Amino acid sequence: MTASRISLFDDEQRTTPSNPYRDDVVGKLSAGYQNNGRPVSLDEWRFVSDDAEVVKTLADLYGGEVQEIVKTKKNGDEVVEYEVFTKAKSLNIIIDSPEAVSAEFVHWANGEMIGRGDGKTMEDGTADPGAHLPEAERKDKAKKGLVPAPETTVYFRLADNEDLGVFRYVKSQAWGFERQLARNGFYDDLDIADGPIKAKIGRNPVSFTAKTGPMAGKVVSYTETTLEYKGAAE
After folding, report:
1. In which element (H, E) is residue 142 found?
2. Rounded to whole angstroms, how far apart are CA atoms 233 and 6?
3. Most C-beta atoms within 10 A of its C-beta, which of 85, 133, 138, 152?
4. Are the C-beta atoms of 90 and 158 separated by less than 8 Å?
5. For the purposes of burial, counting CB atoms within 10 Å of the CB of 107, is it exposed (0-12), middle (13-18) or buried (19 or more)?
6. By three-state DSSP, how is residue 32 classified?
């Protein structure tokens, strides 16, 4: 079984990926959080789970304090989750199979998912509204919620405690992330292994001086997510 592809980065068409791990997920890995409704990027990893013991174990492994989060659903029900802002910039992980890494184009608007597809055709058979656009324009419209953007999902176990369960990482607006995976041959390595692999998922600081555009001559700094193949798992 090969990993899912999206047509913007690969000529091979794909279908919406299956999710064989949904029932096994014990928590989410995140590279940021919301502060008064505004997204904040992190240099170290953050975990969220509805299981306090899972988050306590993560805090013991990677540092940080367990905090309780209370969210209110649209129907008024309250949901309690737990989070830990760790001290870890990278994590050694186990990816069980090619199906555990998938990519698709997802259309989000006002916090709601309104469609998904492969970059050319939506799941309902209609044309992707951004497929005909130059990439720069498509990226700009995607940030505004007007067209779908690439989204990559990784299901994994922690090499430091495989028995803790499966975690999920979702990379939205994954333009550079998908190109990184293709350029570094990650998908090829994953397909060839066709079984559990070792990998490292990290937060990598990037800094450069812009040559063109509104930031020309200024230093641009940000932290990107990296995913590296580290060999077949025993």
Report:
1. helix 135-143
2. 26
3. 138
4. no
5. buried
6. strand
Which residue type, as a one-letter code, is found at position 168?
R
Q: Sort strands 166-171 and 25-35 into parallel, antiparallel or unpaired.
A: parallel
Confidence band for 10, pLDDT divided at 50, 70 and 90: low
Place of tokens 């199906």: 99
- What is the rounded average pLDDT of the residues 57-80? 91
What's the token pair of residue 112?
Answer: 């709601």
- The 10 Å Cβ neighbour count of residue 213 is 9
Whether residue 157 has pLDDT greater than 80? yes
User: In the structure encoding, which two tokens stand for residue 161, read together?
Assistant: 């405690």
Contact 46, 84 (CB under 8 A): yes
The helix (H) or strand (E) run that includes residue 54 is helix 52-62
Distance CA 29, CA 95 (A): 14
**Whole-model pTM over 0.85:** yes
Tokens 């995607």 belong to 142
Tokens linked to 140? 């700009």
Whether 87 contacts 42, CB under 8 Å: no
Instruction: Give tens-digit pLDDT for 179-234.
Output: 999 889 999 999 999 889 999 999 998 877 877 777 777 777 779 999 999 999 97
**Neighbouring C-beta atoms of residue 151, cutoff 10 Å:** 22
Cα distance between residue 58 and residue 85, in whole Å: 10
